[in-house]
C-alpha cells in the first residue's frame, strides 16, 4: 500500500518539479499520486542553493510557482521538537539532513530521498 503522505528531500523535489529522469520510477509514482507532499523549510533553502549552484536562478520563480500551485504541498517549519529529535537521535548526518529525518520521524511519514547515507541510517525511506 502506497503512503497517502510523504516528506521529500531537496534533490527528489528538484527532480520531481523538473520531471528529471534521475528521479526513480517508484519515487515519481508516489510523488505523483500521494495526497500530501510535506516539505521541511530547510529543503526550500537547500533548493535555492542547488538552483543557484546550477546557475538556474532565472528559473527559480517558475519552480517556486510550481511548488505553490500544487495544493498537495505543505511546508513544515523547523521547530524545537525537530531540534530535540536531532539532538536525541545524534545521527551521523549533516544538520540539514538530520533535521529532514527528524521531521519524518516526528510525523511518522516516509521520506523520499536518493541520499544513500540517509537510506542506510534511516529505514523509513522511499527510492
TrEMBL record:
It comes from the Bacteria. It holds the Pfam family PIN. Residues 4-120 form the PIN domain. Signal peptide: none annotated. InterPro entries: PIN-like_dom_sf, PIN_dom. SMART domains: PINc (SM00670). This is PIN domain-containing protein. The lineage of its organism: Bacteria, Candidatus Daviesiibacteriota.
Amino acid at each position: 500500500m502506497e503512503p497517502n503522505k510523504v516528506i521529500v528531500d531537496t534533490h527528489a523535489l528538484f527532480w520531481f518539479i523538473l520531471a528529471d529522469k534521475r528521479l526513480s520510477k517508484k519515487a515519481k509514482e508516489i510523488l505523483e499520486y500521494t495526497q500530501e507532499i510535506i516539505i521541511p523549510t530547510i529543503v526550500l533553502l537547500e533548493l535555492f542553493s542547488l538552483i543557484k549552484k546550477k546557475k538556474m536562478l532565472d528559473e527559480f520563480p517558475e519552480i517556486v510557482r510550481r511548488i505553490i500551485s500544487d495544493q498537495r504541498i505543505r511546508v513544515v517549519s523547523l521547530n524545537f521538537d525537530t531540534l530535540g529529535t536531532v539532538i536525541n537521535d545524534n545521527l551521523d548526518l549533516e544538520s540539514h539532513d538530520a533535521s529532514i529525518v527528524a521531521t519524518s520521524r516526528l510525523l511518522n511519514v516516509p521520506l523520499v530521498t536518493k541520499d544513500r547515507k540517509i537510506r542506510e541510517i534511516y529505514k523509513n525511506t522511499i527510492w
